[in-house]
Amino acid sequence: MSSVLPGVRTVKVQPGHIKGELTRLILRTQLLPIALEHQSDSAQTQVIMATVQTKLVGGADGVSFNDGGAIGGWPTTQNISSTHPIQQIDVFAGWTIDGITITYEKENGDTAKVVHGTPGARSTIKFGKTESLLGIVGRAGYHSYYKRSMVTQITFIIVDTSSSAVRIEGPFGNGDRSNQGEVFKVSQPIAFAGYAKEGSDPLGLSGLSFIKAFFAE
Question: Phi first, then psi: what are they for 16, rounded to 5°?
């Protein structure tokens, strides 16, 4: 968006504090749902949510999963909260991202916890009541040691929609510092999808895709 409506909050950061892909992602991304909700209130029009799924990054080993459908019930219903979809993310990572556990918040206030790949947590990211996931930056692709495509690194960019403060959690993974895989980035995901070997496999997570939401009349 090249301009915003009066009174609509956007993300403000100082470019010198965040470098590389993170800077470009944040500066390019505004809180689009907030802007559209504001516009719809003034125009007295109905607002509906549309969802899209991004291209897979990493591999396709294991079983496919889609939290948008399994937890959210899309496309027939919308059970994941549109304002605070994620309460917590647990990451199990070493040389690659072995597993990820997401705790979703539903529209009725209940929570749903799902594990994709290796269970457990070496790092935990908690989201405050006014915080949401602004973006994700990572690496994914063929890993020469494991000889298959994987998600090798991930970083979470979180915004407080009350204060516009931004914090960064990560990067996680890339423990061998080999920087394998291509850089990927996605803005404002609200749910995860992908492929994983469920259970005790030490390299359970294979690939990731992301569910994004848009509001429209």
Answer: -65, -15
pTM of structure: 0.77
Class of domain 52-212: mainly beta
3-state SS assignment for residue 82? coil
Task: Please tell me the predicted confidence (pLDDT) of residue 41.
Answer: 47
Q: In sequence order, what E strands does 67-143 have?
A: 86-93, 97-105, 111-117, 123-126, 131-143
Give the model's confidence band at 213: pLDDT under 50 very low, under 70 low, under 90 confident, else very high: confident
Q: pLDDT-derived band of residue 39, with 50, 70 and 90 as boundaries?
A: very low
Please state the φ and ψ torsions of residue 68, each to the nearest 5 degrees. -60, -40
What is the sign of the dihedral through the CA atoms of 161, 40, 67 and 134? negative
Q: CA-CA distances (angstroms) from residue 131 to 44, 87, 95, 104, 157?
A: 27, 9, 29, 13, 10
Domain extents in the chain:
52-212
Q: Give the integer Cα–Cα distance in Å for 213 and 155.
A: 20
What average pLDDT does the structure give for the chain?
82
At 198 the pLDDT is 79
208 exposure class (CB count in 10 Å sphere: 0-12, 13-18, 19+): buried
User: Is-contact 73 64, C-beta < 8 A?
Assistant: no
Question: Could you identify the residue written with the tokens 């909700």?
Answer: 37
